[in-house]
Amino acid sequence: MITLAVDCMGGDHGPPVTLAACRKFLDRHADARLLLVGLPDSLRAFAHERAAVVPATEVVTMDDPIEVALRKKKDSSMRVAIQQVKDGAAAAAVSAGNTGALMAIARYLLKTLEGIDRPAIATQLPNAKGAATTVLDLGANVDCTAEHLLQFAVMGSALVSVLQGGEPTVGLLNIGEEAIKGSDTIKKAGELLRSAANSGDLRFQGNVEGNDIFKGTVDIVVCDGFVGNVALKASEGVAAMIVDGLKQEFARNIFTKLAAIVAYPVLRALMKRMDYRRYNGAALLGLRGLVFKSHGSADALAFEQALNRAYDAARNKLLDRVRAQIAHAAPLLLPVEPLESGAAAMTRS
Amino acid sequence: MITLAVDCMGGDHGPPVTLAACRKFLDRHADARLLLVGLPDSLRAFAHERAAVVPATEVVTMDDPIEVALRKKKDSSMRVAIQQVKDGAAAAAVSAGNTGALMAIARYLLKTLEGIDRPAIATQLPNAKGAATTVLDLGANVDCTAEHLLQFAVMGSALVSVLQGGEPTVGLLNIGEEAIKGSDTIKKAGELLRSAANSGDLRFQGNVEGNDIFKGTVDIVVCDGFVGNVALKASEGVAAMIVDGLKQEFARNIFTKLAAIVAYPVLRALMKRMDYRRYNGAALLGLRGLVFKSHGSADALAFEQALNRAYDAARNKLLDRVRAQIAHAAPLLLPVEPLESGAAAMTRS
Q1: Domain limits of chain B?
Q2: What's the CATH architecture for B117-280?
Q3: Minimum mean pLDDT among A102-116, A255-269, B231-245: which range?
C-alpha cells in the first residue's frame, strides 16, 4: 500500500479540483491510500474507504511571503502534509500551493540529503521526439556553483531512471558560439560532469543549448534555477503566443472559421500532444522525503497527474535511488577547492 | 546618402544570398550606397551604380575561434567591413558571420563608447501584441553586474526610440515567486533602474518574467547574455517543435491532408506574423560605430531586413542618440561602490 499526503487546500482552485483528482486517482490505484490534509469543513463531503482526513487549521495562500508560510502558519495544510512524510505516515506529499513556501517548509521539516547542499525543482517538458525532457533546477536556487549543478545532474538521473527506466543522458545548459562559451561556473561544472561520466555515475553528453530542451537531445538538462525558470516561462510564452495567434487567424472571417472546423481535429491532436497537464508534477529533489509540486492553476486532470508522479516515485523508491546515487558519486560531490564567496553561506548536512 | 559596408562573405550562404539582398535593398533605397566587402572573384558579377567592391582576401568561417578571426585573419571581409565604419567610409557595417568573431573584431577596432563597459547584442522578438520586444543582451556577456544591466537598459532605450519612436518601456528579466526573487545582482540592478527612471532617463516598469517577452508587457527586456541566449534558443526550440508537430499531424492521413489544404492560408498567415526573418538584424550596441548582425542562416529576404535595420539606425543617428542618453545617465553609470571580483578585469574607456 502506497500512502500519499495531499495538500487539498493548495492551488488556485483548492478542494473542488484536488478532491476530484483524488477520487479519480483512488479509483485507478487499488493499492493507494490518501491522507487528505486541509480544513475539515472543506473536506467533509469526500468519503472513500482508502482516504482519511488530516485536519489543518490554516492555508498558505499564493501571495504569502515565505516567512509567513514558514513561521506564522505552523498549522497550514501544506506544512501538515509534509509533516506526514516526515513522520513516516505518508511516502510522499503533493501540493499545488505557493512553490517558494513549499520548498522552504519541505526543506525546514525534512532537511536535505547527505551530500546535497541545495534541493532542486525538476519538471518535465514535452520534446519533439514525443517524449519528455526533465529540466532542473527551475527556481529553487538563483546562484549555483559547479558542485550544485553536478548534484542536480545526479539527482535528475535518479529521478528519470526511476520514473522512466534506463540510464538517462544528461546535458549541461550553456550558450553557443555567440560568446565565450559559458561562465567559469559552467566550465567547471562541465569538468565535474565529465569526471562523473568517467566514473560511471552519469551519462553526460556535454553542453546543450536552449533549443535542445525541446529537441529532446538529452533526457535531462541541468541549469541554475534562474536560467531554468526563465527558459521555462519564455517557452510557455511562445507556446501561448502561437496558440493565441492560431485562434485569431482562424477567427478572422467566415472562410477561416470554416477552415477551423475542418482543421479542428488535427489541431486538437497537436494540443493534446503538447498539453502541459500531461507533464504536471514537479519533483522537489534532494530532501529526506518525497515532495511533488503541481502547477497552481492545475485542473483535476493535471492534479491527478501530479498524484500519479508522486505515486510512481514512492512505489519505485525514488528516495533510496537518489540516496544511493549520491553516495556513489560522493567523492565527486566533495568540494575540490574552497568554495567562493557566494557559496560560503551554505551548510552541508 | 547613407553608406553601409556589407560583409558579403558571411553567413551560411555567402554571396548568393547577400548580393541578392543588396540588390533589392538598393532598389528600395534611392539614397543608399553599399560597400560590398569580400573576395573580388565572388563579387565580380554584381554591378550597380551605387555599389562598390572593397576587396578582402580572407573569410571568417562560422567555426573559426575568436582568436583566429581576430589575430590571424587580419584581412577578412568581416574586419574590412568594420574598418570602413572606423574610417568613416560607411555609417554602419552588416555581417551574417560568426557572432563571437564579429563582436570581438568590432570591439577591437571600434572600442566601446564612453560610459559603457561592455557592448551588448540586442535583437527583436515577435510578441502577442503584433509588435516586437527588444531583448538584450543575447550572448555577448555571460556574467553581468547590475551596472552592466543598467547600461543595457540605456542603450536599448536609445535603440528602440530611434527605430520605433516614442519613449520605450523597460523591464528587468527576473524569476517569479518560485524562489527568493532574483540574485543580488538583479536586486541591485532593479535599484539602479528605479533611480534612472526617477531621473527621467528611462521608463522602467519593474521586473518581468520570461513569458512577458512574448506577451509584449514592455518594449525592452534587459538580462545578462547567458540568460538572454538561453531564453532566445528555448523559444526558438518551442516554436520549431510546434511547427513540426503541426506538419506531422496534418500529414497523418488523407483526411488530415485535406484539412491541411483548407487550413493552409490560415497557417501561412500565422507563420508570416511570426516569421523570424521580419525581425532579423541584431544591433551590437555600445561601440563607437554601428554594427548589425544577421542570422547566419538568413535568406535574401532576412538579410535585406538586417540591411534595412542598419540603414534606419544610421539615418536616424542611433550612435548620437546612444551617446547622448549615456551621457545623460552618466551619474548613475558611475560605480557607486567598488566593483566585485568578476568585474575587476573590466576597463572603462
Answers
A1: 1-116+286-328, 117-280
A2: 3-Layer(aba) Sandwich (3.40)
A3: A255-269
Binned at pLDDT 50, 70 and 90, residue B217 comes out as very high
What average pLDDT does this structure show over A1-26?
A: 95
What integer is the mean pLDDT of B13-20? 95
How far apart are alpha carbons B188 and A165 in whole angstroms? 44
Mean pLDDT of A92-101: 93
Q: Which amino acid is at B149?
A: L
pLDDT of residue A338: 43
Q: Look up residue A226 and give its amino acid.
A: F
CB B226 within 8 A of CB A187: no
* pLDDT tens by residue, A324-340: 888 887 777 665 444 44
Query: In whole angstroms, what is the distance from residue A304 CA to residue A312 CA?
Result: 12
- DSSP H or E run through A52: strand A51-55
Mean pLDDT, residues B232-244 taken together:
87
Pairing of strands B132-136, B220-222: parallel
- Nearest CB partner across the interface for B128, out of A235, A241, A270: A241
Distance (Å, whole) CA A31 – CA A52: 15
DSSP state of B26: H
Chain A positions touching B262 (Cβ under 8 A) are 258-259, 262-263
Chain A neighbors of B139, CB-CB under 8 A: 175-176, 178-179
Q: From the list A62, A177, A186, which residue is nearest B99 (CB)?
A: A177
Q: Please confirm whether the linkage preceding A312 is cis (ω < 30° from 0).
A: no
pLDDT of residue B68: 92
CA distance A311 to chain B (A): 24
> What is the SS3 string spanning A125-173?
EECCCCCEEEEECCCCCCCCCHHHHHHHHHHHHHHHHHHHCCCCEEEEE
3-state secondary structure of A58: strand
- Contacts of A164-168 with CB under 8 Å at 24 or more apart are A164/A219, A167/A203, A168/A134, A168/A203, A168/A218, A168/A219, A168/A220
Q: Do residues A16 and A45 make contact, with C-beta atoms less than 8 angstroms apart?
A: no
Q: Which residue has the cell 573569410?
A: B59
Å between B60 CA and nearest CA of chain A: 13
**Nearest CA to A144 among B236, B207, B226?**
B226
Domain spanning A118-278+324-349, CATH architecture: 3-Layer(aba) Sandwich (3.40)
Distance CA B340, CA A33 (A): 54
Residue A92: its pLDDT value, please? 97
Residue A176 has pLDDT above 80, yes or no: no
Residues of B in contact with A106 (CB under 8 A): none
Mutate which: A233, A278, A346, vs B, most B CBs within 10 A: A233
ipTM topping 0.90? no
In this structure, which topology does domain B1-116+286-328 adopt according to CATH?
A: Isopropylmalate Dehydrogenase (3.40.718)
Contact yes or no for A164/A130 (Cβ under 8 A)? no
